[in-house]
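Researcher: Sequence recovery benchmark, item below. Answer with residues only.
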């Protein structure tokens, strides 16, 4: 059995925030941000925009490209770490898409690796579970969880959603060729947005106070080192499982966190710059949305063509990281 990618779509908020806009609220500059990260702009939710409506719009575009009706879906996987509801948003996305059957919809939480895990889960549901049409959405609104007075983090992130539709097919048509997936809780201290409970070290009393989450806390240098060390190894391992080498692959598509990370990984794997997909300059780090957002742009602009192979990798909080070798 196989499963193939039959559609993609994406959605970003309307408000565009440039590096110069950020320089008005924190002590930074366009030059510092673009030289260190490659980011020039990001989109941030405003007005009535939220995670769910970004996810729904991205999903509608992917379903349209796939020529799949909402009721033809057997499963919706919403990969996000910033849901509107801690119990998850996937069933609400299912309702807002107009699905009338009680097909399964659930969230997957794995920060910036979420979308790669979503692809893997979809492949298991299809290849082992008899599911036929699966929608995988990567969506995050990090703007709700960053400290807009902290120049070390607020410059990095943007909000977005991206989606793909996967369909059961014969093994020869398989579009999800291999995976390599990891996590390391030891590294969690370098990146997180933990619950604020028990801040002063006191023992929780009954009844406990209502909880809230801290803003994103990050040791940028450690995260940088982790990405440059682990991502090339993971991609090499996924390529080996697929029986391929970097030279057989048409595109390298990494989680869009920092252009210097993308360049370093591409160099390590000997991918020439013309084979590297990057749209980070326009959107910043959109967490679980970054891979499907960049994929959607690359497909719609005609860069990625049917039959092309892509080495994709997500990495981020957890720490989590993982790679997928995909055929479009
Ligand atoms: N503008 C101007 N100066 C700044 C800014 C800013 N926005 N941010 C930090 N600085 C200053 C610091 O205060 C420091 O000043 P000092 O030398 O006087 O102390 C100096 O710039 C250097 O700061 P560093 O943090 O050491 O800068 P670094 O070169 O490590 O770059 C960066 C920081 C861009 C965050 C980098 O470490 C990085 O990209 N790391 C990866 C982070 C990442 O990708 N995180 C997200 C991935 S995981 C996920 O997606 C959830």
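Model:
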């Amino acid at each position: 059995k196989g499963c193939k990618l039959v559609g993609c779509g994406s959605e970003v908020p309307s408000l565009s925030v440039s590096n110069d806009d950020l320089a008005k609220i924190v002590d930074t500059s366009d030059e510092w941000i673009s030289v260190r990260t490659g980011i020039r702009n990001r989109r941030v939710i405003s007005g009535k925009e939220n995670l769910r409506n970004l996810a729904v719009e991205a999903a509608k575009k992917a379903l349209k490209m796939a020529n799949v009706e909402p009721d033809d879906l057997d499963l919706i996987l919403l990969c996000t770490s910033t849901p509107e509801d801690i119990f998850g948003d996937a069933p609400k996305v299912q309702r807002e898409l107009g699905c009338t059957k009680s097909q399964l919809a659930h969230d997957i939480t794995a920060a910036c690796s979420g979308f790669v895990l979503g692809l893997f889960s979809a492949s298991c549901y299809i290849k082992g579970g008899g599911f036929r049409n699966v929608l995988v959405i990567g969506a995050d609104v990090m703007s709700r969880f960053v400290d807009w007075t902290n120049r070390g983090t607020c410059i990095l992130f943007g909000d977005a959603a991206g989606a793909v539709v996967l369909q059961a097919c014969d093994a020869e048509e398989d579009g999800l060729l291999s995976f390599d997936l990891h996590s390391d809780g030891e590294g969690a201290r370098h990146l997180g947005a933990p619950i604020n409970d028990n801040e002063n070290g006191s023992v929780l009393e009954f009844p406990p106070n209502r909880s809230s989450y801290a803003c994103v806390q990050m040791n940028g240098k450690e995260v940088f080192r982790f990405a440059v060390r682990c991502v090339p190894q993971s991609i090499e391992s996924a390529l080996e499982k697929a029986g391929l080498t970097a030279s057989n692959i048409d595109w390298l598509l990494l989680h869009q966190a920092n252009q210097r990370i993308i360049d370093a990984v591409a160099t390590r794997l000997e991918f020439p710059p013309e084979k590297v997909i990057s749209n980070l300059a326009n959107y910043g780090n959109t967490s679980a949305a970054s891979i499907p957002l960049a994929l959607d742009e690359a497909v719609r602009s005609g860069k990625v063509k049917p039959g092309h192979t892509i080495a994709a990798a997500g990495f981020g909080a957890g720490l989590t990281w993982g790679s997928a070798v995909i055929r479009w």
